[in-house]
Design goal:
The complex is a heterodimer of chains A (about 350) and B (about 260). Chain A is α/β, with parallel strands linked by helices. Chain A has 14 helices and 15 strands. Chain A has two domains: about 190 residues, Rossmann fold; about 110 residues, Rossmann fold. Chain A has a seven-stranded mixed beta sheet with strand order 3-2-4-5-7-6-13, with helices on both faces. Chain A has a five-stranded mixed beta sheet with strand order 10-12-11-14-15, sandwiched between helices. In chain A, strands 1-8 form a two-stranded antiparallel ribbon. In chain A, helix 1 packs across helix 7. Chain A is globular and about 70 Å long. With about 260 residues, chain B is of the alpha/beta class. Chain B has a single domain, classed as Rossmann fold. In chain B, about 35% of the residues lie in helices and about 20% in strands. Chain B has nine helices and nine strands. In chain B, strand 5 and strand 6 form a beta hairpin. In chain B, helix 4 packs across helix 5. Classes of the chains: A alpha/beta (about 350), B alpha/beta (about 260). Chains A and B meet through helix 4, helix 5 and strand 9 of A and strand 1, strand 2, helix 3 and helix 5 of B.
């Protein structure tokens, strides 16, 4: 039976990963996401499900612990916030290159540099375009509620193992810190060694006489083989684009204009829609849930009905590049951003819509 | 070259006195002729075979000359990012406490870029083994100065010799980790003579046996030569190692904590 609780986003994520049957969490404290590890430690995960929770010496060590655990076919994860995620990028590139499944959480704060501890969406480029070195993609899920923080833990592991690819939950300081009611799934069992041997035959859990030794690596010194490996990765990313696009449309049925926003800014846009419609402006919201794969086709289809799109991001304009690519110049696309830890007010979004899209 | 003919009688099974371990693959080693890596690989794999723990062992290879160790070691093995092998191995051991887990790292990997991971894995007392091959130089990238390069020693990035005023002192990581409560067994060995190889193999065995006892981290340094990087022939490099490396990096046990 599902359980209803009032929780912080970070805590809901932590509780949900335990219930999803996670085997190991490896992290390093950073605001505004430290509640994830604090919650797991308080829960004594090792006693509760046998899950390992380990505080690493750095974000770099933590992501490489994830590499080690993922290479053994275990359900493992790490979480961090923007500066810490920058440190993890080398490890994430190795994990993507070695095609290992794992779950990552970034509770984004404003940058660049040490920036601020307040919420932001300025890690969109890093999250969706690679982040580390080499041609690779993460599957990126963008929660806009505490409920989705919980839901995307299980979904993230599922997609990670389905595609042997890291999955990133791209949250922000507002979603991570706020409290809402959340419905939690029932406890899933952790993988048994037999299941690991059967379902992830590539995992390094000890060479048995019935198979060759398993190797986890992202290296191939033969360029032709490395090109083939890259082609295989690209085919996988195209498959993910075909199968895994997720989005939500709100008030779009009669809309003449649309907001495109994810996470916290999508929530504020819902209030902005109420304000705008009270003034007779027919505006809706297209909320991408997956940022990679990006809902390109649905946006392109919308261009036959709406006259203009306002991208509302807590950044200087990052997702707007994907929106413009999807829209292919058919309608007007403008950006309205607040950043450095500032969150938009609904009324200023309505004003921006009037000024930049309707009147512009 | 004269044709060499083997007397078939010599090949009789009863005459077999030495056999290459099955835990080394058929792939030709990528190491320079004369380098100590091959012997270090061999004794580790022999110990795993002799203990009968191939199916329970997971290795972690570094970045450096031994980046391709996974090609040669016939066990399940992961290749780690530069310096991060102790972190990778930590997770493997924590998730599979009953398995035997080891890292195999060079001095650039372990004592420079991976210093933090090495110290913290040792300090946590992870119940695993670190093999540390110290040849005082970055071999794979072409002979640059390592943290372990001796004072005055020439390398491609210290072409006039290591000046400790501007380039710092060589780092004795093995002595350093011996001070940490999490290490149970810390030793420095070599593989340049038959007797050194036998002693080093005993140390490797002890390090793996320690994992059965669940007592903490075992750290085995092997001081080795890099004839290519040192610009010497193999014989000269071994003589140079004995004369110069051993006084600075003395061979023998540094910490044997039996009662812990």
């Amino acid at each position: 039976m599902k359980e209803l609780r009032l929780m912080k986003g970070n805590e809901a994520f932590a509780e949900a990963v335990i219930r999803a049957g996670a085997d190991g969490y490896f992290g390093y404290p950073i605001t505004p996401q430290s509640e994830v590890m604090e919650y797991l430690m308080a829960q004594k995960t090792h006693e509760r499900t046998g899950m390992v929770t380990l505080q690493a010496e750095s974000e770099i060590a933590a992501i490489n612990m994830v590499y080690g655990g993922a290479g053994c076919g275990k359900r493992v994860l790490t979480s961090s916030s923007s500066p810490g995620m920058s440190l993890k990028q080398e490890g994430i590139s190795y994990i993507a290159g070695a095609e290992l499944p794992c779950l990552l959480l970034n509770v984004v704060r404003g940058g660049p540099g040490l920036g601020t501890i307040q919420p932001s969406q300025s890690d969109y480029f890093q999250s969706t375009k690679g982040g580390g070195h080499g041609d690779y993609r993460l599957i990126v899920l963008a929660p806009s509620s505490v409920q989705e923080m919980a839901d995307f833990a299980g979904l993230g592991f599922e997609l990670a193992f389905k595609y042997r690819n890291p999955v990133l939950v791209l949250s922000d300081g507002a979603i991570g810190q706020m409290m809402e009611k959340v419905e939690l799934d029932v406890q899933q069992p952790r993988f048994t060694d037999e299941e690991i041997r059967k379902n992830t035959p590539w995992a390094t859990i000890g060479k048995t006489p019935d198979r060759d030794h398993n190797i986890i690596t992202s290296l191939d010194l033969e360029s032709i083989k490395m090109e083939q490996h890259n082609q295989k990765l690209q085919e996988k990313y195209r498959l993910i684009e075909e199968n895994e696009v997720r989005y939500e449309k709100i008030g779009c049925e009669d809309a003449e204009y649309a907001f495109v926003a994810y996470g916290t800014s999508a929530r504020i846009c819902q209030k902005a829609i109420e304000l705008a419609r009270a003034e007779g402006i027919k505006v809706g919201l297209m909320r991408p849930i997956t940022l990679f794969p990006f809902p390109k086709k649905i946006l392109n289809d919308m261009t036959s009905r709406v006259k203009g799109i306002l991208c509302v991001e807590m950044s200087a304009g990052q997702m707007i590049e994907d929106v413009k690519l999807a829209v292919e110049g058919r309608i007007k696309v403008e950006h309205f951003g607040r950043y450095g830890g500032i969150v938009h007010s609904p009324s200023e979004i309505v004003e921006a819509l009037k000024k930049q899209i309707i009147g512009g | 070259m004269a044709e060499f003919k083997t007397n078939p009688e010599i090949l009789q099974p009863e005459n077999l006195v030495y056999k290459r371990t099955n835990l080394l693959t058929e792939k030709a080693l990528s190491y320079c002729p004369g380098c100590g890596h091959g012997t270090a690989h061999r004794i580790i794999m022999e110990v795993i075979e002799e203990m009968g723990i191939q199916s329970e062992t997971i290795g972690v290879a570094p970045v450096g000359c031994s980046v391709l160790a996974y090609e040669f070691m016939n066990i399940d093995i992961q290749q780690a990012a530069h310096g991060r092998a102790p972190a990778v191995a930590t997770a493997i051991k924590r998730l599979f406490p009953e398995k035997f887990v080891f890292t195999y790292q060079g001095d650039g990997d372990l004592a420079a870029i991976g210093t933090a991971e090495t110290i913290h894995a040792c300090n946590r007392g992870e119940n695993m083994t670190i093999f540390f091959i110290n040849n005082g130089i970055y071999g794979m990238t072409g002979g640059q100065m390592a943290p372990t390069t001796l004072p005055g020693m020439k390398s491609s990035t210290s072409p006039y010799g290591r000046d400790i005023q501007t380039m710092g002192n060589p780092l004795k990581m093995t002595e350093l980790v011996a001070t940490l409560p999490g290490t149970i067994y810390v030793t420095r060995q070599a593989v340049h003579t038959p007797s050194a190889v036998r002693k080093a193999k005993r140390a490797v065995r002890k390090a793996f046996e320690n994992q059965k006892l669940n007592k903490g981290l075992s750290f085995v340094e092997i001081v080795s030569n890099c004839n290519s990087g040192w610009k010497m022939n193999p014989l000269q490099s071994n003589e140079w190692m004995v004369e110069n490396m051993f006084p600075f990096y003395p061979i023998g046990d540094i910490k044997v904590n039996e009662e812990k």
